[in-house]
Amino acid sequence: MNKIRRVALTEYLNAVRSKAFIIGVLMLPVIMAASVAVQVFAQKKTDLTPRRFAVLDRSGQLYAVLAAKAKSRNDWLHTNDASVSVEMKGQRLKMDLPKQPEFVPEEFKPTGDDEKAAELQLSERVRRKELFAFVIIGRNVLARGATNHMELLYHTQTPTFQELPNWLDSTLNAEIRERRFTAAGVDSQQVRLLSQSVPLQRLGLAEKKTSGEVVAAKRDNPIATHAVPIGAMMLLFMTVMSSAPALLNTVLEEKMAKISEVLLASVSPFQLMLGKLVGTVMVSFTLSTFYLAGVAWMLWKFDQLGNVPGQLFAWFFLFQLLALLIFGSMFIAVGAACSEIRDAQNLMMPVMMTIMLPMMTWMAVLQSPTSPFSRALSLFPPATPLIMFLRIAIPPGPAWWEVALGLVLTTLFMIGCVWASAKIFRIGILSQGQAPSLPKLVTWVFSK
Amino acid sequence: MSPPLLTQPPRPAVRLTNVTKTFGAHTAVRQLSLSVPTGCTYGFIGPNGSGKTTTIRTILHIFHPDSGEVEVLGERSTRAANDRIGYLPEERGLYKKMTVHRVLAYYAALKGMKRADAAAEIQKWLAKMGLSEWADKKVEALSKGMAQKIQFIAAVIARPELLILDEPFSGLDPVNLEVIRAAILELRAAGTTVIFSTHDMAMAETMCDFIFMIYRGNKVLDGTLADIQRSYGEDTVRVNCTGGADLLRNLPGVELVRDLGQSQELRHPDPQALLRELAARTTVRHFEVCQPSLHDIFIRIAKPDSQEMQVPKTTGGGS
Fold first, then answer.
1. B47 vs chain A: nearest CA distance in angstroms?
2. Which 225-264 residues of chain A touch chain B by CB within 8 A?
3. What CA–CA distances, in Å, run from B98 to A8, A424, B95?
4. CA distances from B214 to B70, B167, B210 (A)
């Protein structure tokens, strides 16, 4: 036991003293702050050149309105700063939105009836950078049922700029609707009122307390029902993925650097492997503690910590432990069996596929956490740490017996993985040459 | 060097009894019995791939034998004695990113040594090897020779009762070789049992109390050098004559002519007849009948064209 502790402690200290760990963990807030600063800087560098565009209004009725709306928008931009505010511990935090460029329309009067010539003429002006874009409004745009998709045409050579076409779409269509209502003798104000949608309120279930008092159902909280489960599962996945695969490298490096044999003269292969696993669990728990503390602080700052059940933190560490022991032992076995990184990459494929399984299926589980598929998947040991954790995080969570059964099955599977990996490790760690095939690894597992 | 007192020591440091170890269809060690007396220096020799390292790993319980019994420092078939064994493997490696002190402290801790004892021992050995100022440097900053000395210190740091060295002198320059050799002799004088494998026959002759040779998994030599040489008789002749190796190779009855430059070494069943033959044909400047060297014996057993197993020349002592 003392030797396992010694190996684990050395593995832990080697990892947490490495530059990769320090950069990955301690520098994370710095990197995040820097990325936010870069984004803010980039937003301030938005191209605010006024977007001049021509309007060929064949209906002859919409340009004036469009020009008035553009002027009104430009005036608003000059006098107002677009911003959003967020509630943070009782204080409102105001954040500026990116500034937007002015839109400058000009009316284009074609000299003849040749539509193609007009289109070409305007296109040439766009190419010469005299215009940013041009719009052609069809003759029948106000006619009822003018939905042939050819009545409003937007031309540009910068299709990635979305603000102008979006603004044109909403402004012109709002005006067209108003005019159609008026032409049909319908009060547009009345139509708006009558067609106003009724929002669907999402709620949980009513409860009856032991005192007999009935507690009304609470409104659905998307943070608690979606953001927390998904975020927590992703964080669990991230901490496992940033720790377990590193075991492959350390074992392989020790093997390639011929350190393993020295260690095996002092500790048994099982002690060495277990020490490495324990060391990795300690590294991963350190990472999780940093990340969870940071996330909890952020949630507290935004008054959202109440949406995270306290026991979720305990489940997080428990499932992290199981995942690390399962996948860590698999990575150790692969590292011990191979003599080169290239060989290890081939053998890693099945392990990676197993790890990625929950990532490929979690959406279906989120949609229907109690479906037979979700239940079966959460009881499938390689997927249990992530999928069962996700189900626990989604209110109201699975039945207790499902959690208990999942834990028992996963623990048994974990013991099997560690046992099989120990067998592979014992044989593989001193083997040289070509990496064994998967069937060969199976024979190692069942060899004496 | 004189062998230690060998009046039937009560318990050998290492005793292998009918040990067999196979890897798939390949038998690495076959029915090997070996007894290493406490306090001696035991040399393991043999061609590459003959089973030396497998035998060493079996003694260390890194490999479990398919059959037979392994007893090390009084412990049978368990790793219980491993903390009392120092081991320097043939292929060496150290943690490059760790400091010299941390690496040595780690290896000492794995042997169950207390931190304070380890610190004192590390200081002592680094001073002895002239590496004191490198204690806080990372291993990657060391030269190859320095790293090899650190590796040696790692093997002896926990004051082992049994020290196993697999090719301890390979790759060392003459200065460092002498430093390591002196350290081994010092440990042996202090009572440590030393087993080392080597391809350097001269080193084995001068350092070892006993020689053990394994060839194709079988024990072919085991005993003191004198006993082994005696068992091969006085059929080796060292000659210096006009005509040299070319002349000697064409003489009847001559085997294994080894050209040493100024003289030639060869084997002949009747040295007197050879001398008469030579005297009749050429000028003989030097003619000496001697026992075969360990090098010669090694070649005789393991010469590349040897198709059949040689008859084992076990002469006691070890087994």
1. 19
2. 254, 257-259, 261-264
3. 15, 28, 6
4. 17, 15, 13
Express each pLDDT in A282-293 by its tens digit.
Answer: 999 998 998 899
Q: What is the pLDDT of residue B169?
A: 87
Please tell me which of the candidates A254, A267, A430 has its beta carbon nearest to residue B110.
A267
User: What pLDDT is stored for residue A140 in this prediction?
Assistant: 85
Q: Quote the domain boundaries for residue A150.
A: 50-184
Same domain flag for A283 and A399: yes
Same domain, yes or no, for A237 and A135?
no
> What are the Cα distances from residue A294, in Å, to A26, A289, A299, A319, B307?
11, 8, 9, 20, 72
E strand or H helix that includes residue B204: helix B201-207
Q: Does the pLDDT value for residue B45 go beyond 80?
A: yes
Side chain identity at residue A400, one-letter code: W
Burial letters A59-75, b for 16+ CB under 10 A, else e: beebbebbbebbeeebe
> Do A207 and A214 form a contact (C-beta atoms < 8 A)?
yes
- Which residues of chain B neighbour A2 with C-beta distances below 8 Å? 112
User: What structural domains and CATH numbers belong to chain B?
Assistant: 14-224 (3.40.50.300), 230-308 (3.30.70)
Cα–Cα–Cα angle for B234, B237, B240, rounded to 5 degrees: 160
Residue A212, domain member (yes or no): no
Task: Give the number of domains in chain A.
Answer: 2
How large is the average pLDDT for residues A369-398? 93
The pLDDT tens digits for B173-186 are 888 889 999 999 99
Say if residues A344 and A248 touch (Cβ distance below 8 Å).
yes
- Top residue of A256, A266, A430, A447 to mutate, by most chain B CBs within 10 Å, is A266
The alpha-carbon gap from A335 to the nearest alpha carbon of chain B, in Å, equals 17
Could you tell me how many helices (H) and strands (E) chain B has, helices first? 10, 15
Reply yes or no on whether the pLDDT at A424 is more than 90: no
Please give the average per-residue pLDDT across A427-444, as a whole number. 80
A302 and A393 assigned to the same domain = yes
Inter-chain contact B89–A7, Cβ cutoff 8 Å?
Answer: no
Q: How much is the pLDDT for B9?
A: 54
Q: Cα–Cα distance between B184 and B170 in angstroms, integer?
A: 15
In angstroms, the CA A259 to CA B93 distance is 5
| B312 pLDDT higher than 70 | no
B209-266: pLDDT as tens digits:
999 999 888 888 888 888 888 887 777 888 998 888 888 888 888 877 788 888 888 8
Contact status, residue B297 vs residue B200, Cβ threshold 8 Å: no
Instruction: Provide the pairing of β-strand A103-107 with A51-57.
Output: parallel
**What pLDDT digit, counting tens, does each position of B108-118 carry?**
999 888 989 99
Asked if B271 and B235 count as a contact pair (C-beta separation under 8 A), the reply is yes
